[in-house]
Amino acid sequence: MHTQKLDNAHRDAALDFLFRHLDSSMVLYSNVSQYGLEYAGQPGQGEHFGAFSPQGALLGVLAHYWHGGIFLQAPDEPVRVALMQAFRQQATRPVDKAVGTAAQVESVVKTWGLSAEDFRLDSVQQLYRLELSALKPPEDGRSQHCRIITPQAQHRPLLERWFRAHFLESLGATDDDDLTRTVANRVGQLLAEEHDWLLECGGELVCLSGFNARLPGWVQVGPVWTPPEHRNRGYARILTGLTLKMAAAEGVGTAILFTDNPAAMRVYEALGFQRIGDYRVTLFKQAVGQ
């Protein structure tokens, strides 16, 4: 086995490998498909490393993205170890998060000798999958008084308030100027990409849901956010169900998501999602590496 930094000449091989592990590679596959394998400092881009068999077959892919996070897809532990060693030798930027299956994130954590006190968030979440032919959309009367809205520029103040609250509550963010910049960038991306929707019920905006990765035939659901004052009324189920119904009408056949929230699990299971594995999100208190 040997490792090397990947470039766009490896794009087809990387996509073929990631497609075989798509349930836990949606973001990796989506970003490689849209932005390639080379890094020029732009959102969506990252430096990529690959591990190859003696026969030249790709065995694993590691991405170090523009935002400092590592996303790893390497099912076999020796491959993960080799990729992490190669990455540490060639890394040019620090790492502040790791995302992937629990076993794969553990390989990242072990590389730097990190433990629980080094994390501001460490969540092993449930990974869910739904074939949209089995979608169970809400049938109660509340959905008849609601409609989907595509966010526009006039919704920016609301979206920035919601994302700030989401990052603080769900991701353990620090309420500072860095968060203000992160939120502004995220909302700008949302408005540009049009992969997210708002739910309006009774003339009031009550929920946000979208797709954070989208491929031919596949979507990954997220983020889903209901402000505290609108919770426990079924809005997340209504909006997620409606957006998945729209996706199915456009030819999407499979949806993926992950969550560690018991209430969210009940929502998704009511829509027909089935648990298929785990997914770990680990955010470091201090960045490590170069």
Describe the structure.
- GO terms for molecular function: acyltransferase activity, transferring groups other than amino-acyl groups.
- InterPro entries: Acyl_CoA_acyltransferase, GNAT_dom.
- It comes from Candidatus Thiothrix singaporensis.
- This is GNAT family N-acetyltransferase.
- Pfam families: Acetyltransf_1 (PF00583).
- The protein has 290 residues and is α+β, with helices and mostly antiparallel strands.
- The protein has three domains: 2-124, 3-Layer(aba) Sandwich (Aminopeptidase), CATH 3.40.630.30; 136-150 and 194-271, Gcn5-related N-acetyltransferase (GNAT) (Aminopeptidase, 3-Layer(aba) Sandwich); 156-193, no CATH class.
- It is 34% helix and 32% strand.
- It is built from eight helices and twelve strands.
- Strands 1-2-3-4-5-12-6-11-10-9-8-7 form a twelve-stranded mixed sheet, with helices on both faces.
- Helix 5 (156-170) crosses helix 6 (177-193).
- The longest helix is centred in the middle third of the chain and has 17 residues, at 177-193.
- The protein is globular, with a radius of gyration of 19 Å.
- The model has no long low-confidence stretch (mean pLDDT 94).
